[in-house]
Amino acid sequence: MTSKQNIDVLLINPGSRRAVYQELGDSISAIEPPSLAGLFATYLRNKGLSVAIVDAPAGNLSPQGAAQVIRENYRPTLIVMVVYGFQPSASTQNMPAAGETCRALKAINPEYKIMMTGTHPAALPERTLREEAIDFVCDREGPETILLTTRALKSARPVFDAIPSLWYRREGLIVSNPPGPLMEDLDAEMPGVAWDLLPMEKYRAHNWHAFDNIHARQPYVSIHTSLGCPYKCSFCCINAPFGKSSYRMWSPDTVIREIDVLVSKYGVRNIKFVDEMFVLNRNHVLGICDRIIERGYDLNIWAYARVDTVKDEFLEKLRRAGFRWLALGIESGSKHVRDGVEKGRFGTTQILEVVRKIQDAGIYVIGNYIFGLPDDTHESMRETLDLAIEANCEFANFYSAMAYPGSALYRLAIEKGWELPKSWIGYSQHSYETLPLRTETLGAAEVLKFRDEAFTRYFTNPRYLDLVQRKFGPDVVQHVRDMTKIKLKRELYS
């Protein structure tokens, strides 16, 4: 029988690929490493704590399965559910798995001490503590709060009232401590992910990320080069753990050291820069590119950008450094709708110009579009689909607008009394229970049905398939056709 490991902090990446993605989770969606949990692990190790990570999605573990793994292998002082999402604002969709895992753990051992941290818990700390089988919530970014809570638990008489950003119960009442400052020196405090604690062989890239070689989706990683976002798009909750719009960067030297490890030790080529906004700061972008180019690495990287942050001087360097894909938050074909959610001040002409400029530089484009923003009508959603078809990006993501906790849209929905999902899994874009936000004129079912039909229309469009044939070949054309045949089941309109 395997002996249990005494561990100070056990970090859990909760999730259920089937619940979140349905059949897409089997082979289409990415399996992403929990890079934030890995950063937290490095911070905690550097402070002298012992740390382990259980990655439920990578192991394809159910909540009960994850709880059993913990019961059989660990004696943790503190268990931390790191509830983040691997696409912007997608933390909430992992709450059902996180909550069920906590309940399973408490059933095994009521004495387990459990904390939740991440975007969703930070957005709704009191509700999270009240509703979930947990002892603590962190309402900011996490590392210091985890450290001090663990130290308190290891003391003879634990005291929690001086721990910043901590929510807990005292004599049956919910107590919250004032938030602490954001971490200032990312290079010193979290200089990389604890990759040795992760099952590196399990991770795979998004299907489109490997269109150049559809059979080489592994090895794969996602890394942060910055935290936060300076913009205030009303549909996004990404800044909830930071308490404000903010943007902090790791230095290019720290980033390249991380890439050096990934290439030399793990043979990684496929890399996602998971930053909410990578293509932004000139010195940051070009500094990282220059260092990758100096190394001569052959990488396949993708990153997020905005239409209004892509500069001509960036593109040549990005391509030479191995940035094969840029994801553009186009969102809507209607400027009126975009203005309503504070999404830039660019027009349709500029969108198309930037898409072509990126493609002409030899970089592929993922166009991200949202249907069902508050000012959307049938006409404006058709404008969005028409723009997507005209832009003809190498890939496109079609989302339904969601009132994610921590976003301005969530506050708007509450004010207007608009229906929200009954379960947190309803915030998953691809789940059976998906419930998008209604608009001023359209119901949720109308929005979702339009989104699903738009997906099929885009990926079966002959012009798009011709582009895929020319750029990626017949195997990828067949892959796209197979992907399009996977029909999501929807409770809302089935």
Which geometry do the CA atoms define? globular
Instruction: Give unreliable regions as ranges.
Output: none
Architecture per CATH nomenclature, i.e. the level-2 architecture of the largest domain: Alpha-Beta Horseshoe
How far is it from the N-terminal to the C-terminal residue, by CA? Answer: 49 Å
Q: What is the strand tally?
A: 15
User: Given this structure, which CATH class of the largest domain is correct?
Assistant: Alpha Beta
Helix count equals 20
Radius of gyration: 22 Å
Estimate the mean pLDDT confidence.
94
CATH topology of the largest domain: pyruvate-formate lyase- activating enzyme
The largest sheet is: 7 strands, mixed
- The CATH superfamily of the largest domain bears the name tm_1862 like domain
- Main sheet: strand order: 2-1-3-4-5-6-7
Q: What is the count of distinct domains? A: 2
Look at the helices and sheets and give the structural class. Answer: alpha/beta
The helical percent reads: 40-55%
Provide the β-strand percentage band: 15-25%
